[in-house]
Write a structure and sequence with these properties.
The protein contains 7 helices and no strands. It has 2 domains: 38 residues; 143 residues, Ferritin, CATH 1.20.1260. The chain is mostly helical.
Length: 187
Amino acid sequence: MPKNYPASRHNTRVSRMMSLLLPISILMGCSKSNHSSPASPLNDMDHKFLTDASFSNYDEIDASKLTSSQSSNGEVKTLGQEMINDYRTSESELGNIADSLKVPIPAEPDSAHKLKINKLMALSGAAFDTTYLRDMINDHQGAISLFQKELNTGQSARLQQFVNKYLPRIQRHLTIADSIMGVLQQH
C-alpha cells in the first residue's frame, strides 16, 4: 500500500471491488456449469417421432408385402412394392439416426398394427384391395400429421432433415392410394 494512501480508503475500495466481483464470479460459475452439461439434442416430440415413425414404417412394409399375394389389382400391387422400397429405405435411415442419437426404436410393428396385418391376411381380391387402401389412406394421413408436428415442434436438426426428405413421399403415397381407391369405388 502506498505511504500516503489511508488504510480506510483502501479497505473501502477493496470491499467495493469484492462486492462487484463476487456476483460476477457466481454468475460465471453458474454459466460455466450450464455449458458443461449441454441440453439434450432431443425433446419429447423427437422421441415420440422416432418411435411412431418406426412403427409406421414397419406397418407399411408388412401390409404392403401382402399386396403381391392378396391383391387382384395391378395398381395396388405396384403401390405396394413402391411402399416396401420407400419404407425400408426410410426405416434404415431412421435407424441410423436413432443409433447415432443413442435412442432405441422399435424393431417391429406395435400390437395394433399387427392386428391390422392379421385382418388383411384373411382377405383377398377386391376386399383386400379396398381394406388395404383404406388402411393406407388413414395411416398416411396420420403419418403426415406426425411429420408436420415434428417439423413444427421437434428440436433435432437431423430429424428435421429426415422429415423434409420423406414427407413428400408420404404425401405422394397418400395421393396415389386415394386415387386408386376412387377408381375402385366407381366399379
